[in-house]
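INTERNAL AUDIT FORM
Audit reference: QA-55
Scope: verify that the stored structure record matches its stored sequence.
Auditor: D.O.
Record contents follow.
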Amino acid sequence: MQELIFPAVGRWVSAQREWSDLVAEMQQELPARLCADLIRRAEQRAQQVNWAFQRPLERRFREIELTRRAEAKKPGRRPETKLLRRRLVLMNPAAVARELAAGLTPPDLSEYNQIVADLARAMPHPGIAQRYTLPPQALRALADQIAAAGRPVAQALTEHAQNLKHYAELVDRLRAQPLVQKGVRLLGSAVAAALEPLVGREVAAELIGLDRSLDRALEQVEQGWAAFRRECAEFAVERQRRHQLIYLSLVGGLFLRVQRDLRRLGCELAVDEQGNCRVVATAERQAWLRRRFREAAPAIRAALDEGRIDEAEALASRLVGQVVTDPIAARTELDGRSVGYWAYALHLSAWLARARQLWEQGRPEEAAAIWRRIFAEYPCLVADADLHPVPGEPLPLVTAGFRLAAYAEWVRQSNRGDEADALLMTQVRFVERLSRLNPEHALPGERLSPEMQEWAATLSAYLRRSAPDPDALDLPERRLPLSRYPAVMSRFRQAVGTSLESSPLERYLRGRVNLLRGAAAAAATGGVGLLAALAWLLL
């Protein structure tokens, strides 16, 4: 763990080399965009704290320098003394310490553990990142290393405070002299000598000594302040260097180790077009997955074409097990979709072929059981165009929905209305999943055909009319335009034949089509009033 945090903590002589080595390692191991973002974040975090104390101090330094220049431009004891007093007030160590406190206080590095938690959520196994969580005391120790850069500047400020205190004590002693209390302001030893006949040799000598000590004390204040400014400039640079190095060692080191762990699993970190960091299969593994799919798919398609459905199901199940069980590998791009999506498309084609065979053999209950399972449980949404083609059946999944609905109507005629509604609702809920797809978790390529969506909207409208308690079903609000019903009815009859002409569903479809035809006839004869309005009200 010590190596993870920072292998050279305490050896700040080589900090620049450590930074350069770490940046080079990250550039080699991590995506360029991620690497640049981590480096920029480390520099910004350090700069933000530096600005918190540098800006007010720089304003103070500028004001002191302006006051110093004004002293030189205004000769005379009174203006000079006033400006000196102003400059010494600006050098007040207590006020300077308050402004410097942001740099001397250890920074909060708890953001590191939050980054670990965020990264863990993007992992196929959260423990890959979570094991690099650091205890608070470790982060505090690192923060102390950053704040330790302020020891020299804190010492320099302490010495400046002592110098200023000594100067203030001398001023107080000088003000305590009777002559000074009477308003005589000393200009130097020459003036004090001239006063010797008036105040006596001993008093004049004491005044001269105080004045000279005051000059030396003021000189020490100036020298101490200059030393503090030099230390302050060095502190800003050193603190920035320590902060950004420790931050990058933490966060950059985290991503480096997670990257190595992932690569042992055949995955790695990548950055998508939106700048999101995600886990993908390595280039080598992606190539293997594409090759494996292209080797396995022809045999499955051939088995489907030749009616060897048991073999097709077994081969498709094996392929799904190889490329889909790992959710990261399943997202590997292939022909505009993903390997996992195409594997599911073949697997679903085999299931539909099995159900179709049972339907054609006069075993609708068994076929309906497969269809119900598909619509209720199948893990991937597949468009009809991507399923294995079936002669005379351009929409295999939609056809399955038609036939399941036909079976549901047969169940309804057996006085099992609730069971029939449940079979229709599985299709409605299946299509609703499309609107709830999360790109973070869905396989690239997941979609449904427009015809499947139209059929779900038709069933929703039918259930809203026929169910005993439509509100209890929580039906979606999406409605199908009346103009689409002829196509829906045509496909429905082609899939199930004319054996259900007396069912409530078929009568509903026929009624919608007749309503449209009536509206069209009324419009053609100019009678667009009542009949046309009725048509739109019933949408």
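Auditor finding: record pair retrieved intact. The two ends are 66 Å apart (CA to CA).
Action required: none
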